[in-house]
Every structure is written in C-alpha cells, then in structure tokens.
Amino acid sequence: MLLFTEGLSSQREIIAEIKTLFPSLFVVSTHSQERPEIHEFSDSTEAEPKNADLRLTFLRDIISRYGIKLIHAGKHTLWYEAHRDIIESLGVTLVTGVSDVEMFDIADSKIRFAQLMKQHQLPVVPSIEITSADQLEAELKSRPFGNDVLYCVKPVKGIYGMGFWKLSDDIPAARCFYDTDSRMVNTDVFLHAMKQSNDFKPLVLMPYLDGPERSVDMVVKQGVTIKAVARIKNGSYQSFEESGPAIDLAIACASILKADGIVNVQTRNAPDGSPVLLEINPRPSGGIGYLSHSGISLPGLFVQTYLDIKPAVSATDHLLPNIRVRPLTQAIIVQ
Questions:
Q1: What is the pLDDT at residue 158?
Q2: Is the pLDDT at 316 greater than 70, yes or no?
Q3: Which residues belong to any copy of the ATP-grasp domain (predicted)?
Q4: Full-model pTM
C-alpha cells in the first residue's frame, strides 16, 4: 500500500528501514532504469515508463493493482505537482517534498531561496547570482564579502554538492585535478575554464564558511515538523543532535516553504558560531541512512505520520547518546 516512485539511491536505506519496522506493510518501488540495489527490500518492483506521457496511465494501473494508499515521489516533482489533483482523486496521498510548484521552484533555486529566507528574517549565507564568466571575474576582483574570506561557487540549481568549488589564488594550478576531494581550485584556472564554456550555467558566489556543517533530516507534514535530527559533519565522521539553534532554524525554514515529506535542510556556522541556512532539499538526503544508528527512524515516522500505523518495533523514541558514524563503501550482489 506504499509506493516509492523513481528516486535517488538513498531510497534503498529508507525502504529497508521501513520493512524492518513494518514487516507487514506492502512496499512497491518503481524506476525507469535498472536499479536492483534500490529495489532489494521492496515487496514488488515495476519498471516506470521513460515517456512522461505514459506516466499517469502507469500510476493508475499500479494504484489499482496493489491498492496503493501513499505515494512518495522521488523525482519528477514538477510533473507530480502538476497532476496532484488527478492522482489524489484515485484515493491516494501524494508526497513530493513540497506543497505546490512555486515552493519547489524556490527550493530549487539557491538565489530565490536566499531571498525568501531574508524576507522572513532568517539568517542565510550571503550570495550573488553569477550569469557569466566576466561577471564572476569582476565580482572576485571587487571582493563583495570582504578581503579576508575564502570565496566559493556552486550551481544555482543542483544536488549533492555537485559543482561546488572553493576558489583560491594561492594554490597550485593543477590542485583540482589531483586533489578533487578538497573541492579547491585555483581562481585563474576556474575563470579560464568558465570563459571557454559556450553554455555557462548560472552560479552562486558565496563566502566560504568553515564552521561546522549540519545536515538536518526531517519529517514534515504541510510545513509542520514531526521530527528533525541533525547530522553534524566533522571530517569523515558524523554525530547526531535533536535540538539546538540549527534545528530551530531548519524547522522555521521548512514551515515557510510548507515542506511535505522527508526533506533535508543544510546549515553552516557563521564566524560568530551561529548557524546560517545554506539550502533546503525537498527530498531525502543521501545520508539519511546514517540515522539508522541514531535511535530515531525518520522513515518509520514518515509511515506513522502519513499512514497512521504503528511499527512492530519502536525505533523513534529518543536519540542514543554519544554515537558517531562513518560511511563505508560496500558492494552488494545484484542479479
């Protein structure tokens, strides 16, 4: 009765956790590509049509055949929001991470997101939209955020930190090629590459904040936070907290955007130690599976909240103290 449509790889951990807590809950997952690792813990899987024109007919069939009551849409958010009324008329609850198209567009643009947060007087990292390589060069020369800060860029639209670079005049020109994990690039090298591009993608120019980063995973229903847990990133380790100013900030942010479902808010500490908003992702984070060690199950709370059923084993009571986790790369057998 729960359908996960095509989403990102963290769906695997979400479905596995749900099946552990709700073994009798029938879970269906679908994808337009061959992704057996995502489907491993589902009770049934189906191949989504690649043609969006066939998607509605496909959904009607899946809903009818399996008696689906709740749909978690991982991708194609704009399509699902455009068809929300039709889909929910079939007797299901649709969860996309947002409540309407406008809020998704704001969340998807780091510039519009920052502007909205400022309007509501929430602290957000200062930023400038860059639409050309020449503008980037001019802004870097003018040092709009001060002379003593490190500058960084990332795409206006994007996920998982792809395209994020810290710019420095003082590192070797080839640094970005042999030390990609540092996300450091020589400023002149970056500018030269951007000037060669015939398809410049808009960037956000920001001061780099080196304070602790918190990734706040949340279950939210129509802007009301059910539970939020922050993962504090310290090098290759992460620890957890369930209260504090970063979580308060994330809750306020999710309320403004009327977030709906399993979402993620990113913060970093400013030089004075206070958190500022970086972005909201209206989808489960890539690291949500780390929370399985925390004592709190957000996937479990998601099911409880939207389907009003209780888990066979409670894993949502309290945060376990003094837990640190470290991600590992592992292989699984796919057939």
A1: 75
A2: no
A3: 114-307
A4: 0.92
